[in-house]
Structures are given as C-alpha cells and as structure tokens.
Amino acid sequence: MLFRTDTVRRSVTMEGLGSLADLGVKLVAGYRSVVLGAGAVVAVWLARKIITTKKKQKLRREWDSVGQDVVLLHQFLRGKYCPNLSPFALKVETFLRLANIKYEVDSKSPYGPKGKCPWITINGEDVADSEFVLDNLTQRFNINLESHLSTQQVASLEAVRILADEHLFWCVITWRYWLDRCVIFLTTQDLGLFFNTFMPVFMVPGIKHRAKEQGIGIHSPEEIYQICKKDCATLAGVLGDNDFFGGEKPSRADCAVFGQLAQLMWNAPGTHYEALLTNVFPCLASYCLRMKDTEITRFNLTNTALL
Questions:
Q1: Domain ranges of the chain
Q2: What tens digit of pLDDT does each residue of 215-234 get?
Q3: Considering only the top CATH level, what class is 151-293?
Q4: Partner of 279 for a Cys bridge, out of 67, 192, 235, 275, CB 3.0 to 4.6 A?
Q5: Which residues contact 98 (CB under 8 A, 6 or more apart)?
Q6: How far apart are CA 31 and CA 212, in angstroms?
Q7: What is the pTM of this model?
Q8: What is the pLDDT of residues 144-183, one digit of tens each?
Q9: Phi, psi for 77 (deg, rounded to 5)
C-alpha cells in the first residue's frame, strides 16, 4: 500500500510539473508573439514617421524656394466657375491682389497647422486662419486698405465682415454639404470620380454635426434659407448705392464679403440660393461682378484663372 501510494504521488507530481512546463512554454511563446507584434507596430510607425518627415522636409524646401517676401497661398484646387470652393481662400487671394502682394498658389497641401484651409507660408513662417493671415500681411507689408475711411466706418465694416464670415458662411455650407448633399456643388468642381463618389459620404454627416453644434442645424431647410435671405438683405442695405462696402474702392472687408457671396453667385447654379443675388438682391450680384472685374482682382470665369 505504501508503495502504491508513493507511486501515485510521484505520478501526480510529474503530471503537475509537466503542466507547469507546458504553461511556461505557452507563456514564453505568447510573450514572444506580443514582443514581435509590438516590434512590428513600432517599426511601421517609425517607417511612416521617417517617410512623413522626409516628405515635409521636401515640401518645406519647395515652399521656401518661392523667394523672399513671396506669399505661398495653400488652398484647394480651382473650380469651374469660381476661383475657389473656400470663401476664405478667395478672401485671402482677393486681399493679396488688392494689396499688390506677390504670391504663388499651392494646391498640394490645402490644410494647414490648424487643419483649416487656407493658410500661407512666407519667409519660412506658416500662418493659418484667414483673419490671422490678413493681420500678418497687413502688419508685415504695412498695408492699409481703409486709409480712405473713418474710424467709425472701419468699425462698421468689421461688423459686416463678421456677418459674412461667421453667419452667412454657415448658411452656405449647411445648404451645400448637408441639405443638398453636395449634388449641385459637385457640378461646379473638377474633383474627379473618387471625390464625386465619396465626398457626400464624409461631408454630409460631418457638416450636419458641425451645423447642429453651431446652432443653425437645428432649423428647418426653409428657416435656414430665410436666415440666409436676411443676411443678404442686411448686406444689400449696407452696400446701398456704393460700388463697394469700402465706398468708392474695395476695403479689407470687401475681401471677406466677396469670398462668401461668390459662393452663392457662382457655386450654386440654378438654385434659390443663387437667386438671392441674381433676382432678390441684384445689387449684390452687380457687386460680385464689380469685384470680379476690378482691374486688380479680375479673374476669368471661363477657367477661373486669375489674370
């Protein structure tokens, strides 16, 4: 009996040791898999980091090659009827032309440090957001497009600029990308099959979310249209019989207003939004044409290349 009991104990002990050994082997194998997997992830990350860094260095060399005091304007590709689908890009480009600042356009990298379009590079410095861009250029080149205006007029025009950039803008993009699902807008661009197919997939939910956060998205399509109409009525009232919002000649505020109204004038063909300018407030349509045909800012609607 003692012999048999001892034999059983040794057998159990050996089985236990065998199980522990198997467990150890599995743990080591699992650990090696984790290490190898982590190593592969790190290797891929490093490779992408190196490639991205080299790409940025190459782009930086290209950007710096435009020359001293030459603005490199990063923006979207040209449209069919309007120089740019971004009102803020058109705003900056119009300012550059009004201020007679030498510039070149880059469409390879439209999104800047803040993830927004447009942005500029000048003398190795990157500046993002259209208002900060204009502030920077105004100070850098000692530009004053309001020299013919009083302090009160300049302040009033800043309110007009805010109406266009911060209010009318939301009406336009909410209709363009969400309510109309990019249908009309895509007919005004040469973006190719890929973007024509997938742009609505990403833009519709994205703009819907942003519009609801901003507040305009909680309204009905008709209410949004009425808000846009009211904005246009306000702009038409401020413009009055003047050629420009700056009076006899364009001011800095005109760059912003033109950038926004141009989206209704040329990037919403055949819609009731376009009709707000062409039928309801024709003075705004005439204003857009004057801005387009101003000697300095003139652009060709045939191919939207700035002359």
A1: 1-59, 71-140, 151-293
A2: 999 999 999 999 999 999 99
A3: mainly alpha
A4: 275
A5: 145, 250, 254, 255, 296, 297
A6: 48
A7: 0.81
A8: 999 999 999 999 999 999 999 999 999 999 999 999 999 9
A9: -65, 155
